[in-house]
Write a structure and sequence with these properties.
The chain has about 250 residues and is of the alpha/beta class. Helix content is about 35%, strand content about 25%. It contains six helices and eleven strands. The strands form three sheets. It has a four-stranded mixed sheet with strand order 1-2-4-3. Strands 5-6-8-7 form a four-stranded mixed sheet. The chain is extended and about 65 Å long. Bound molecules: zinc ion. Zinc ion binds near residues 205, 209 and 215. This is DUF45 domain-containing protein. It comes from Caproicibacterium lactatifermentans.
Amino acid sequence: MENAVVRGSIRCGEIQMPYLLVRKPVKNINIHVRTDGTAVVSAAEWVPAAEVEHILQKKSRFLLSARERIKQCAVLQPPVHQYESGEQFRVLGQMLTLQVQTGFPASVQRQGAALFLRVPAESTAKKRKAQMDRWLRDTCQAIFTQAALQAQDLLADRCLPQNITLRVRRMISRWGSCIPTKHVVTFSTHLLETPAFCVQAVVLHEYVHFLHPDHSRAFYAELERVIPDYRQQTQLLKSPAYAVFYNE
Ligand SMILES: [Zn+2]
């Protein structure tokens, strides 16, 4: 048997929020917000509609913020690449235009604002992506390692652990992380999209965690001792243009 569905709407401040009430043999009343902004509520047949509306009304602030988040995520969808000539890739804050060329061996080379991707004639989008991903990882490793050396220099008078391992991983919820006990720092491949001063600030942030594992006052004091305008430098990372919280 199909579930009975009732359409309705509740008022959340200035906004009229549509909802769908789905009658199902469920124990609790469940609510989620769909990508089109509609709230979907499932409730058992015996729960009065007025009671459902009352609960929705009580949760209206949560519903509105969920709707807002979904709207923002839609804007922040990462670009879908087919790895064809003319597509843009952001590297160290600069937009580079991809130029696909036929040749062997496969390679990627940056020249000014162009990124030359050389692949065999019959290459598929998947193969082109694999080549680009390899280049992205190698470039991340090289650039972040350079920033790490600079961080070590800046913190030369502090007791950093020996043999720090630097890892690069595709992370969408953070720019970097540090496990002080294991002497490991990890950076997101997305960090390569940001300008060099942001890369430096993030790398330094993770290195300072070897001295102060938390985000205490002492942590920020140390960070600002070496980069006095740390907060301004990392402001850009909070802007929507550099959001890594992609809806993936
Ligand atoms: Zn931190």
